[in-house]
Amino acid sequence: MYAFSNAVNSMHSEDIKLLMKQASGKNLISFAGGMPNNDLFPVEQIDEIYNSLPEDLKKLCFQYGPTSGYPPLIKSLEAYLRNKGLEVDDNKILITTGSLQAISIVTQEFVNEGDIILTENPCFVGALSVFETAGAEIHSIPIDKDGIDIKALKSKIESLDRKPKFLYVTPNYHNPAGIIYSPQRKKELLEVLSGTGIILLEDDAYSDLYFKEDEKHLTKAMKSYGVKDVEIIYTGSFSKILGPGFRLGFMLSSEEIFEKAETVKQALDACTSNFMQILGNEFLAQQKLGPYLTFLRSEYLERKDLLQKYLKAYMPEEITWNEPKGGFYVWLKLPSHIRSTEIFRESVTKGVVFVTGRTFDPASKKDDRLRLSFSNTPKDRMEEGIIILSEAIKKVLQKSKSTSPDQLVL
Amino acid sequence: MYAFSNAVNSMHSEDIKLLMKQASGKNLISFAGGMPNNDLFPVEQIDEIYNSLPEDLKKLCFQYGPTSGYPPLIKSLEAYLRNKGLEVDDNKILITTGSLQAISIVTQEFVNEGDIILTENPCFVGALSVFETAGAEIHSIPIDKDGIDIKALKSKIESLDRKPKFLYVTPNYHNPAGIIYSPQRKKELLEVLSGTGIILLEDDAYSDLYFKEDEKHLTKAMKSYGVKDVEIIYTGSFSKILGPGFRLGFMLSSEEIFEKAETVKQALDACTSNFMQILGNEFLAQQKLGPYLTFLRSEYLERKDLLQKYLKAYMPEEITWNEPKGGFYVWLKLPSHIRSTEIFRESVTKGVVFVTGRTFDPASKKDDRLRLSFSNTPKDRMEEGIIILSEAIKKVLQKSKSTSPDQLVL
């Protein structure tokens, strides 16, 4: 039951119900969770850090800290962000309880019920749940292999009778689409927003997880482009580079936005765990992140390659997908009359789960995609999982050929 | 600077500014913080727990968990709450990132801008900041040595044109007033709420910190009284019985309230740190809490006795105060024409800080009280601190005698 809840983290509620009913007790093969595999965590490094903490620092782990964050961690993050080319001095860092809290804080700071938020389509489902809970009116803009559709973004902004509060994007190794924005597209995006007064919320949880050193430059944050007339709030996370269990994230913003954000944060949970911040800081300050990332990148690259190999070997020809340059996700494209929810129904009974396309559509409709995550699937079960999945897809395709398209519309 | 931010945790923003200006670099004696002393934390016990975690559990520390909480911790909390006489089976537990998050979740679940919340006066300042951030209309009701003023509560409810969303109270070892509600007063409070549809939000962060075993029964939660026609949400915290740095709290509520709360929690930070939950759970499950509480109670009793001794020895006769039966706080009463903010101005220049009375008044006005916390002051500096504080009080009293009362009103 517990392993279950973990596996289903970002799944659609109806898919979860089906999973509970169909697969309870089964030895699932999951391509669903957007989390690192338990075997990849830097357990030894944290052991070493914890056990060599000076007595005073260990006591401080147990104590309240300042709302804005543990000051040495803020210092370490400044160095980490400078290294990514980000302008830290004119901005301020707020430590948050996971980067989802940063998204939540920004939403509480700027959005009242009925206000407009722009998102990508598909969009990270965690952010969608924040925006929906706030009662925002979500308008989503399609993305292609290079990023958000600039024309569609422009005409969306022009068509609205009110100014959207912000545009939320995840440009690097997009969840769920697996793409990375081209530098050109990032530039165009900034040009569209320039002068509109629409804030850009740039969520960057995956940029350290590029596969090739010579593609690292592609991850350059828009906040580091030096554009002065777009207000950019940048959020980052320790979830993919240390562990989600730490619940450590941060936001980098102008001082004005920071100050209000700090007040909101104070009213949300007073401060983020000092214990987790102190361990996280030592991980950065003792230079343990660099070698760990080298290890992670090669692990994820291997998993990405394996998944690509099995997809190529077993998927029917009607199915297409991307080959990601980093991150966790492959975004399968189905023929447009096939719904991934049908495939889920089929595959879950055989013990394979993934996340259905509609999960990432703010309108919960568009369903001709499915997200496969390769970050958390045991390498030695991937092949079996993909065989089962492709059988399920073939079955649904077969059924669709023997049925008139009308009957498939739900 | 950092020790500073810690010392000022719950202080009024203007008092903090003064503190920064006047006392920067000084070796402060602080009666301000409502936190345990760093030397009292169960560091050895957590060391032992951490270092004997099985490998699998250690890995799980790094991972996401279910939004509602780490299931073994929920089980342990069920036992802990049953032991306090609470009805667990008809209710559900939600683990939160500190109990302040529980208050924040309940507020987001029930309160829209302009809605009414009832509080005590004085009221825990952390809760006030949540209610203010939500844009609630706060109506506060005075308390006396036995709890909330029942007559005032009744007539407040009758006088309002809209139903308050909930009444927020901290009945056990009140912060800042240091009182505990009498069983009679708890009963009367429930009678007043009965049938009104006003939810009772019962915040119980201190009940394990009674000084005398034969007074333990006084801490009995109203949620355990078996009253059926008052909806009670009960919140608790690990901050005072393990460490605030863990950011672990919980709420116990009906299933209906739990379900909405879980959705709000999902949009706030996805889940509470598994790392902190696993350590917290082992602390409970390995029966380390009981012996630790025995140690804590005797430590706090000793500090309480010391503070009472020095207050009796040095305070001018115009000053009165309570002798708490548990918890952290003494709530000094000044002559009504003296403002604690004046005393703060005086004492801070001599290196002694506390929290001013107005901090706990929703209207930020009532200022004839001051809160002394004895939980975090080094025992060997208490006497010096109280001498300095009483000198400051005497000076302000003296000044008030040589000035006409009109000139004192700000």
Description:
Two copies of one chain form a homodimer. With 410 residues, chain A is an alpha/beta fold. The first copy, chain A, folds into two domains: 2-41 and 294-401, Aspartate Aminotransferase, domain 1, CATH 3.90.1150.10; 64-286, Aspartate Aminotransferase, domain 2. Helices cover 43% and strands 14% of the residues of chain A. Chain A has 15 helices and 13 strands. Chain A has helices spanning 2-7, 13-23, 43-51, 55-61, 71-83, 99-110, 125-133, 150-159, 183-193, 255-269, 274-285, 289-314, 340-348, 379-401, 405-408; strands at residues 29-30, 92-96, 116-121, 137-144, 147-148, 166-169, 199-203, 232-237, 249-253, 329-333, 352-353, 355-356, 369-373. Chain A has an eight-stranded mixed sheet with strand order 2-9-8-7-6-3-4-5, with helices on both faces. A three-stranded antiparallel sheet of chain A has the order 10-13-12. In chain A, helix 2 (13-23) runs parallel beside helix 13 (340-348), helix 6 (99-110) packs across helix 10 (255-269) and helix 12 (289-314) packs parallel to helix 14 (379-401). The longest helix of chain A has 26 residues, at 289-314. The first copy, chain A, is globular and about 65 Å long. Mean pLDDT of chain A is 94; it is low at 1-8. Chains A and B meet through helix 1, helix 3, helix 4, helix 6 and helix 7 of A and helix 1, helix 3, helix 4, helix 6 and helix 7 of B.
